[in-house]
Design goal:
Layout lengths: L4 H14 L6 H12 L4 H11 L3 H10 L11 E6 L2 H5 L2 H12 L12 E6 L11 E3 L2 E3 L7 H9 L1
Parallel strand pairs: 1-2
Antiparallel strand pairs: 1-3, 3-4
Helix pairs in contact: 1-2, 2-3, 3-4
Bound molecules: FE2/S2 (inorganic) cluster.
Length: 156
């Protein structure tokens, strides 16, 4: 995949501004993600070259910290609440069902780019446990057997 030059110009400006500071890697990666939306291999290689560090260092940080994405996010972000109230009401089974229906692990995006599946902390709607959100739509008091119909709605 190739990105427009403008984005790399913006990234270069960020790197130039930060590269002599201590602990510059994380802020540079964060800004790079803001610019590109995620951290594709091309961008990881670019940062490694500019900072004169192995690309494996960047990959290591990107996979360790949940805020970094190595692939583009889906059109629909599905957030499955794993907070206590939801957990005791079966959110793990809801998450498992979503993973099965979408054929992806949590944290990943479907090949068609439609869905990203995330397990998250309390979504602030505990009275509706177990809760998921699909972008801004909230679904509560869920059972796993309701999942296929919900997904189908977004596939149309
Ligand atoms: S624990 Fe799930 S919404 Fe609060």
């Amino acid at each position: 995949m190739s990105f427009d030059n403008e984005k790399f110009v913006a990234l270069q400006a960020v790197i130039d501004g930060l590269k002599h500071e201590q602990g510059a890697l994380m802020p540079i990666m964060q800004k790079a993600q803001d610019i590109f939306g995620y951290l594709p291999e091309e961008v990881q290689n670019y940062i490694a070259k500019e900072l004169d560090i192995p690309v494996s260092d960047i990959y290591g940080v990107a996979t360790f910290y949940a805020q970094f994405n190595l692939e583009p996010k889906g059109k629909y972000i599905i957030s499955v609440c794993m907070g206590t109230a939801c957990y005791v009401k079966g959110s793990q089974q809801v998450l498992d069902k979503l993973a099965e229906v979408l054929e992806i692990e949590p944290g990943r995006t479907t090949k068609d780019g439609l869905f990203t599946l995330n397990a998250t902390r309390c979504l602030g709607a505990c009275g509706l446990a177990p809760v998921i959100m699909v972008n801004d739509d909230v679904y509560g008091r869920l059972t796993p057997d309701q999942i296929p119909a919900i997904i189908d709605k977004y596939r149309e």
